[in-house]
Amino acid sequence: SKENSSFPFRRFKVTFPQTFCTSPHNNKYSPDLLYPNFILFLEIERERGGHRHSPRVLMDEKLIQRLESAVSRLEALSVGGGASLGDGEAAAALDPSIIAFDDLRSQFVGRVCTAAEKIGGQVLDVTKIVEEAFEAQRELLIKIKETQKPSMSGLAEFLKPLNDVIVKGTKMTEGRRSDFFNHLKAAVDSLTALAWIAYTGKDCGMSMPIAHVEESWQMAEFYNNKVLVEFRNKDANHVEWAKALKEIYLPGLRDYVKSHYPLGPVWSATGKVAVSAPPKAPSPSRPMPPPPPPASLFSSESPQASSSRPKKGMSAVFDEINLGMPVTGGLRKVTDDMKTKNRADRTGVISAGEKERRVSSPSFSKAGPPKLELQMGRKWVVENQIGRKNLVIDDCDAKQSVYIFGCKDSVLQIQGKVNNITIDKCTKMGVVFSDVVAACEVVNCNGVEVQCQGSAPTISVDNTTGCQLYLSKDSLETSITTAKSSEINVLVPGAGADSDWGEHALPQQFSHVYKNGQFVTTPVSHSGG
């Protein structure tokens, strides 16, 4: 009945250590100290009307997987891990919430890994990072049960293992654009959902855990939908991968957080104290500038030290003089065609062609500084953002408007209902919004993508080349108006939950026929013969 006693199910071949079933007070065998997963098994068997010695064929497949997973953990603790883990950590590893998290990993993360193995390459690499991030979160969940709630600086150090994995994934999306860029962005952006573990209260600056998981997936879904659209008729493995990735978070992680941590992680009241990293001692010879702040769980941008920027202007010239460098060494020789005085080809008469070229040159040659600010409490202004993939407006209301101007290769997410949205003179810009009271306007743009996750009465596209509109089920009755625009595609969700998106190209050529005293206009469709 002690260390050498085996569990009645001989097929599992597991031996319990004495500490698992022995009371520390009287050193007697106590069956009440069995781990919760086996007590749960006995309760399920009684509810099924069976006996605890029922044959294995009567058990559900999921129940078998849970029991085998639990037995593997027990064997690891009893054979090798029991000596390295304390009693508290061993109990925490077999807590019902940790067991449920293991079920989440095996069911949902395992499915996306299986799909990634069929694809290989960068898709498999980024999927392994997703798997590594969930493994890091599991270790943090175990430590939380043995650790007191830390300070903000201590929390940043505590979450560093998870943060390091997210930063490693972010680096995969940088540099030269990959053929599987949408896969990489969908997987990496989804990892911000794991930051729910950093929730410390309503004043911490982030949404509640359940809402945070849902909001984080909305950003990743923008790229995940592009994978579904691109490969729906090409490769079923990519479609399976995208669907499996979504199910990790919705419903997987969301339901897990809802069941076990709806108000955030529960720290131990009597556990050990999380210690923040000690500050580094300054150099005695020359004080060094402070290091850049660590990358955040909520941002995919890597901070750069200001000292890495090259000096400009006269300060750079003086530095070269102090170093003894020849200031004129990098100058080029001025040839005759580069001179402005006494040139042979200068006649003083400006040709008509040159005059036209001068007039047609744009007056806004230099872009202004980037902006993302609320002006007068009524208007959000987003201007001159280039290469920013994680722009977010989360503090907005139905009386405010959003104006986006001069942005390029960026993605903006608007979390909340606003009055209207205007996208003006943007290139390769992505905008994801929830609800609009009046209208969403796209003007003078090139290659933009707009996704409506809620409702929008009107979407207008004017003088735009290339526009992808993603509509939700609540916005299928949206009125879409186009003028002087081309390459307008509208994607709508399928009838079923697992159905593919349907793509519809809006007509850009029309036929006008005069009949019965008025013109009748119909769109022109072309069919290949």
Automatic annotation (TrEMBL):
Domain of life: Eukaryota
InterPro entries membership: Adenylate_cyclase-assoc_CAP, Adenylate_cyclase-assoc_CAP_C, Adenylate_cyclase-assoc_CAP_N, C-CAP_CF_C-like, CAP/MinC_C, CAP_C_sf, CAP_CS_N, CAP_N
Membrane-spanning parts: none
Similarity-based family: Belongs to the CAP family.
Protein name (record): Adenylyl cyclase-associated protein
Compositionally biased residues, Low complexity: 296-308
Pfam annotation, one family: CAP_C
Positions of the C-CAP/cofactor C-like domain: 369-506
Biased composition, class Pro residues, residue ranges: 279-295
Organism of origin: Solanum stoloniferum
Region (Disordered): 274-312
